[in-house]
Structure formats: C-alpha cells, structure tokens
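Handout, page 2. Input:
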Amino acid sequence: MAEVKLLGTWPSPFSYRVIWALKLKGIPYEYIEEDLSNKSPLLLQCNPVHKKIPVLIHGGKSICESLVILEYMEETWPQNPLMPDDPYERARARFWVKFFEDKVRFFPQLSASLFFLLSPLEIYQTFDSLRESYAR
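Output:
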C-alpha cells in the first residue's frame, strides 16, 4: 500500500471527519499537525488553491476538501464502506452530511463538542433526534 499522510489541525471537525474514516476503514496513516497561523511549505504545496486542511496525501498525490477525500477513500479502499449499499439510504446519509456541513459553518462550537464529547453512535442519535424535530 502506498504511504498515506493526513495534514490536519486540532480541533477541526473536517480533519476529524477524515481521521474517523481512515480508522473505520483500517487504513494506516501518518498524521501531520498543521499550524494554520504559520502554514507549512508542505501544506502550501499540496493545497495551493485554498491553503487549508485537511489534505490527504496518498502515494505522493494530494487530495483536498474533506468530502472529496472521503469519496476518494471509498473508491480507493472499498473495504469497510462508509456509505450504505442501498441508493435510498445513501441519499439519506448524504442529506445528513450536507445538513451537518451547512450547520458547522454557523456553529463551529457545536461541531467541536460533537467530535470531542460524543461517540459516533451518540452523534448519529443526535442527528436522528434533529431529523425527528425537523419532521414535526
């Protein structure tokens, strides 16, 4: 397997999204903590457009943006899929990913608390209760 590195920063929920996926898929990787107030030459080289994290480096090639990284991971390492097989269930999962993505921009404290204080099951249950609230 080609070497995998992840450029990220604490407490970025976008970095943790990729970290969780790497762990769920069982992909060994090297984590490189970035100081966003003093961006490394590696970050600037790997993401010259946005100069942001996370960046996944696989076999010397960089992939940017957390959702794009997750799609790349699904296509590259099909074991332990992150998305359901059923098209309807995949669509529902994408809806909640998009919902969370939109809310994180407005409530970064919520995202940090979700990622550091709750387990994946508790996060799922939180979104499930949000879904029920919005359905009423």
